Amino acid sequence: MMKIMSSMEKKEIIVFSVTVLTLSSLLCFVSYRLGEPNISILAVFTPSIVALVLIAITNGRKGVFELFVKQTVKKTALKWLLMSLIGIPIVASLAVLTSLHFDVSKFHLRTTQLLPQVVVIVLIAIGEEYGWRGYLLPRLMNKLNVFYSSIILGLIWGLWHFPAYLIGTGVPLEMDFPVFLLWVVLGTLFISWIYYYTKSVLTSIFAHISANAAFNYLPILPEFTGSIDTFWLLILYLTILMLVVYYFGRKDLVKGNYAQ
């Protein structure tokens, strides 16, 4: 059973989504006009900042505490922590091995440099996840099941990347945007699956970090490999995984909803 979404919940979803998309677009526009690509990087903080402002206005200190503390500091089963940390890297490694015809001797990291990549990857995840998973996803799941909530969130999240794509930042190079959008939707299904069972933004942050780390350290993206074939293998394997997860978990993920 799906419950009826209140007018307040609808307003929160719309205001958050429109505000984040608008701010991101403005930052990218300013970045483009000034010829300063680094300005567009600030867009990664817009989801969490907007969530902070809106929750402070509507729910005060209690809401801020629930968003940034209660959804972070919580007891979480080890299996979900591990899944958020290594799930996508394992799928990505499988894609790389497939492209190498499973010749393990040829498997290697694209780079071993830790700084500043790790710092940037962590900041991106924190800047986004309290907005996407901490604020928006629970509100969508109060009305819709996890699957449909993820599709909607994935499309919004993907669209949020589009201004950066237009100016050549924030999105993998040498990749058509619809392909990247497909990845974002699949990634959202993966993170939402974990979030549903943990109610933890920390696991979402871990999953986001691990996905970006996989893209940075494994030879997957066409800008590093000269071909999009490995990325398509990643898409294929992640699609299969999500089909299995949402089929066998359909009682919770497809037929149920967060508010139950």
Describe the structure.
- The chain is mainly alpha-helical and 260 residues long.
- It has one domain.
- Helices cover 74% and strands 0% of the residues.
- It has eleven helices and no strands.
- Helix 4 (78-99) runs parallel beside helix 8 (201-217).
- The N and C termini lie close together (8 Å).
- The model has no long low-confidence stretch (mean pLDDT 93).
Outline of this structure?
The protein has 260 residues and is mainly alpha-helical.
**Shape label:** globular
H/E series, N to C?
HHHHHHHHHHH
Largest sheet: none
Question: So how many helices?
Answer: 11
Number of strands: 0
- Count of separate structural domains: 1
Mean pLDDT: 93
Topology:
Layout (H helix, E strand, L loop, with lengths): L6 H28 L2 H5 L4 H25 L7 H22 L17 H25 L4 H21 L10 H22 L2 H17 L4 H4 L3 H20 L1 H4 L7
Helix pairs in contact: 1-3, 1-6, 3-5, 4-8, 4-10, 5-6, 5-8, 6-7, 7-8, 7-10
Features:
260 residues; mainly alpha; single chain
